[in-house]
Amino acid sequence: xxxxxxxxxxxxxxxxxxxxxxxxxxxxxxxxxxxxxxxxxxxxxxxxxxxxxxxxxxxxxxxxxxxxxxxxxxxxxxxxxxxxxxxxxxxxxxxxxxxxxxxxxxxxxxxxxxxxxxxxxxxxxxxxxxxxxxxxxxxxxxxxxxxxxxxxxxxxxxxxxxxxxxxxxxxxxxxxxxxxxxxxxxxxxxxxxxxxxxxxxxxxxxxxxxxxxxxxxxxxxxxxxxxxxxxxxxxxxxxxxxxxxxxxxxxxxxxxxxxxxxxxxxxxxxxxxxxxxxxxxxxxxxxxxxxxxxxxxxxxxxxxxxxxxxxxxxxxxxxxxxxxxxxxxxxxxxxxxxxxxxxxxxxxxxxxxxxxxxxxxxxxxxxxxxxxxxxxxxxxxxxxxxxxxxxxxxxxxxxxxxxxxxxxxxxxx
Length: 413
What we know:
The longest helix has 110 residues, at 201-310. It is rod-shaped and about 175 Å long. By secondary structure, it is an all-alpha fold.
């Protein structure tokens, strides 16, 4: 995996998903999926992921039983199980699993043995490593030597042999055999330089092809990120423009509504002012007409009094009665015209001052038209003193302070 464990793990898992999909579609075999499981096993063994390793070992074991290759795959799976036992310091169990795998390879038929004997290099080295941890250095050296002696005609475990040489060199150094340590360390360096040194022209393409591909992917991702950033910026600009447009439209609507309301209010004020002016004119006319009627009524009363003193005949009595009837209907005529010209006045007044009597309402109507006390007494048929009393009573009912004008208060209603 050339020190690229994260990338390797990602691609192993991705490939495994594709293999499983291909198996469902009939474009891949169970053996292909089994090999994919084994790649995942080696990856999780390398990164020391005990839980995942055990899970994939079980899956691989189940599949190998299905296709009838369990007797072979068990050799390799037991070596992986030995790693779990070794991590848990169950060295005796780990050694048993490794020894069992060696026995099974040695018991294979010649053709199968030749195919799988390269794996003995790894098994012997694994046993040597465990003995080294147990500080059983004699057995460790013995199994390291066996590992070096195992044949590897196809160079399938060349990279692992470099690791074994490094471990053995460390053991020899600690044991004081510096010459042997140097020789094995040198052998490890030769393998590393020959196969894993990126400065070697023969390895350049092999080791850098994946980096070139990764660079292309990174470049493509950077381009996509830039495009996404530009798209996000344009989206933000469009959103800001829409928000600004909505705000402008909203403000325009508010302004239009305010102007419309203002114009409506001014129009209403104008109409109300015109109506009030018309009412004031009519009230003045009513006042003038009423005063003229009062004057006429006074003349008629004087005439009636004169007739009573000088002539008491039947025709004179009939004339006097007619004059008296005419005098009694003077208030009714005034009130009828007042109500028609000042619609709702009495209702608004009673709403504001609920405890007003009918006599109080009459006085209020005459005050609104600015009648004098004398004119009010004549029109209401009461004395001037009674008029003053009535005005005083009104102020009390209306709870007006002394500095408040009664006429202004009534005119404001």
